[in-house]
Amino acid sequence: MPVKLPKKRINLAELQNIKALLSKNSLHTVCQSALCPNIGECFKRKTASFLIAGNSCTRNCTFCAIDNNKPNALDEKEPQKIADTLKELNLNFVVITSVTRDDLPDGGAQHFVNTITAIKTTLPECKVEVLVPDFKGDTNAIKTVCKANPDVFAHNIETVERLYPHLRSMANYKRSLKVLQTAKELGCLVKSGIMLGLGETTKEVLTTLTDLKNAGCEIATIGQYYPPQKTSHPVKEKITDEQFAHYKDMALQIGFKSCASGTFIRSSYFAETSYKIAMNSK
User: Fold this and answer.
1) Which of 80, 94, 102, 199 could connect to 236 by a Cys-Cys bridge, CB 3.0–4.6 Å?
2) pTM here?
3) Which residue stretches of 69-172 are H helix?
4) Is residue 102 assigned to a domain?
5) What is the pLDDT of residue 107?
6) Which letter does DSSP use for residue 8 in this model?
7) Distance separating alpha carbons of residues 107 and 104, to the nearest angstrom
8) Where are the alpha helices (DSSP H) in 90-138?
């Protein structure tokens, strides 16, 4: 029996205002492109996770709603457009993510740097979290992003290792762990997230959390997977609130400084709160 996504109340007027601003500047948010269930709540708080490097991905993960047609060339003006939009929204924390751009020599790493630089120049007090692809494991690309001093370096493991062939056939579990480990070794505050309800076992979740912690992660997010489209990978199980609480306890017990765990949790949901908790625990 299919599991339906619970509804959240949305302030349509506020939502339309933010969408109009993004449309005016020809910007994408992962909130819209990935059909995130928190879009109304986050937009009401005038926060968003900006999607750079286009709106088409070169990967074909079966859980994702983002288009995977041939990507366009990078918009060199995009970093400053994002910075100007953030200033208009008066944000003090932003998440910058991207589609996977395997077609680019550096996977889009320099575009991340240009965006971080534009934001910190335009809004010096704004904290920047980057949620990056795996860059095919290219250490130089990871170093490039880390040298721009993002306040949080995030890369999502997404699921347990056993399910990678079914969900992330073009990705690699150990490669993703190496991305996180490299960023940690370069001095970044490291974060990752996992979706549940795809057929994983409790033991596999604990193993994944342990692997993430050993790779240097200090912030974790754990959320319920819901198919964003009818053609997406089916959900296998609805995780209970008690289970989410248990997984959060496990994460904190093994040493994570911050863990957000629940039905609606996504990697960028209340990212500023997770960042502050992690920083205050140092």
Assistant:
1) 199
2) 0.86
3) 78-89, 109-122, 139-146, 164-167
4) yes
5) 92
6) -
7) 5
8) 109-122
Please list, residue by residue across 207-223, b when 16 or more beta carbons sit within 10 angstroms of its beta carbon and e when fewer do: ebbebbbebbbbbbbbb
Q: What's the total number of domains in the chain? A: 1
> Rounded to the nearest 5 degrees, what angle is found at the Cα of 247, between the Cα atoms of 242 and 252?
125
Domain assignment present for 2 = no
* pLDDT confidence of residue 194: 96
**What are the φ and ψ backbone dihedral angles of 258, each rounded to 5 degrees?**
-145, 140
- Residue for token pair 């370069």: 186
d(CA 255, CA 162): 24
- Report phi then psi at 153, rounded to 5: -110, 115
Both tokens of residue 145? Answer: 């992003």
Helix axes of 173-185 and 139-146: crossing angle, nearest 10 degrees = 40
Residue 249, in any domain of the structure: yes
Amino acid at 188: C
Distance CA 216, CA 200 (A): 23
Calpha distance 87→264 (Å, rounded): 28
- Pick out the chain residues at pLDDT < 50: 1-8, 10, 33-35
How far apart (Å, rounded) are the C-alpha atoms in residues 120 and 147?
Answer: 13
> How much helix, strand and coil, in percent to the nearest 5, is found in the chain?
40, 15, 45
242, part of any domain = yes
> Between vectors from CA 45 to CA 41 and to CA 46, what angle results, nearest 5°?
115
pLDDT, residue 8, reads: 47
Containing 50, the helix (H) or strand (E) segment is: strand 49-52
Quote the domain boundaries for residue 24. Answer: 12-280
C-alpha span between 31 and 180 (Å, rounded): 23
Q: What's residue 188's pLDDT?
A: 98
Cα–Cα distance, 37 to 264 (Å, whole number):
7
CATH number at residue 261: 3.20.20.70
